[in-house]
Each structure stands twice: as C-alpha cells, then as structure tokens.
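Hi F.,

I've been meaning to write this up properly since the lab meeting, where we talked about keeping a consistent format for the predictions we share between groups. The idea is simple: the sequence comes first, exactly as it goes in, then the structure tokens exactly as they come out, then a line or two of notes. No screenshots and no reformatting. I'm using this chain as the first example so we have something concrete to point to.
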Amino acid sequence: MVTAEVILPSVALRPYVHHYWIMKTCNTCMSQIIMPVGCPKWMFNRKRPFDVNGVANINRKASIIGLYDKAKFVDSHEDMEMITVFFMPYAAKMITSIPCQEFYNDNVDFEDLESADFKELKARILEAETTDECIGMIEDFILRRLIKTQDSPYFNPMAKVFERMVANPDVRIEELASVACLSERQFRRVFIENVGIKPKQIQRIQRFHLATNELLKTTPSNLDKLLYKYGYTDHSHFNREFHDIVGISPTQYLHFLEDVCKTGIMPIYRSYHAPE
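Output, unedited:
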C-alpha cells in the first residue's frame, strides 16, 4: 500500500514554503523516475530512505536537497515514511543562511551543517509520534529562523522575478533584471546566491517541468501542441533535451507512465510532480 498527501503551509509561511508532501509505504517495493521540479527541498525519512541512482544511504534521515537538473532513479524495498518540504526557489537561503549554490545538485545531511538547530530538528522529527506533529515542528522551526534572520532586500524582487518567469518561461534576462531593479551583472550574482543556479538554468528546468507535467495527463497525439506551447522547436529538440535530463527517450518515459498507471499509484506520482 502507498499513500501520499499534499499539505499547504500556514498563511504566514506561504511566501516561503510551496507545500509539504508526505508519503508512506507498507509492504510495497517501488522503482520511480523523479523529475526535476525547480524547488529546493528538505527531506525527512522517518523509516528507510530511498536508494537513489542505485546508491543506498540508510543513515541519511534528514537532508537539504538543492536544485538539481537531472532526473533521479529511486527504489524502495522496505516500508517508508517520508516528509518533504518544497520551498519557493528563492526562499531557501533566508532560512538556512547559506548561499544556495552550495546545495546545487547535492543532498546535504543536516548533520553536516554547522548548526545545532538543524540537528535538533532532525532528532525531534525522527522521534515524533505523528506526521502532524512533524509538520507543526517544521513550521515552528522555519518561523523562528525567519525571525532570527534579517529580511533580505532581494526576497521580494526575486519573488516578482519568478512570477514573471512562470508567466513567460522564455522571458529575457534583461527583462528579469529590470523587474528586480538591478543591473544585469548584479542580477546574475544575486540570482545565483539566492536560487543556486543561473537564470537560464532554472528557465530550462521550469520549461521542462511544465512540459513533462503535461505528459502525465496528455496523449501522444497532443505532443505537437505541447512542444509548441513550451518553446521547443520540434520533436528533435525536445527529444535531445529529454534524453539529456532523464537519460531515456520521451517514448520510454511514456511506457514508464503506463506501468505506473497499471500499479494504481499514478495519483501519488502526479502529486509529487504536480500537486493540485
């Protein structure tokens, strides 16, 4: 059995936290392809963690996952209980006080941070009786961190930048710099420090994320419309991009989705990549 739940943050945290995702498995083995979603995350494994790309690290119970630009292949062989915090792409630095580029394409254990607060949170989450208690602890922790850290002068400008990027995934860098009221040079530096990667990289991830989310609910006959919608010039362009990010072809991925549907966990798979 597999269950998943999407929980919205409290009103005070909605500028910073996109959502919480809780998954539990019992007597179920799974192999899944996890696509880049364009959000940094905290992940708490209250039982056994996934094997990622064939590598098992059963001691990694709480970690910060930076933005990544390649799909992950994950496997589970034992019962799991996972809580994932999805942050707004520009908000994580305010909470960790660490430049986001240090987490790019990486999974950093809370134990490796120079902060007793994070280690204490990990211990409390692993010892809590229910996931509801865990969410409450996480919210209290984030609120305390935000109170302790000074307001970043770049938080609101970056929020406006991402609003523009969502509205137009192909928006030019000059326009984004103008939205942030920064020179292009300043904008690129501030963006990398607060988001973790270059603007063009996050645009690529966002465009791919939007396109592949539609693959979860479209049919191959609608593929041409989908490619045009997200700025891919033709099938060859999309196929190259897809293979670079996922390591397989779009056709192979569609076959994978057919298998996911047969197992009955498509709503759970979709809830991770495209929560309602």
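Notes:
The two ends are 22 Å apart (CA to CA).
Strands lie at 2-7, 17-25, 30-34, 41-45, 51-52, 55-56, 62-65, 72-76, 80-87, 107-109.

If this format works for you, I'll send the rest the same way.

G.
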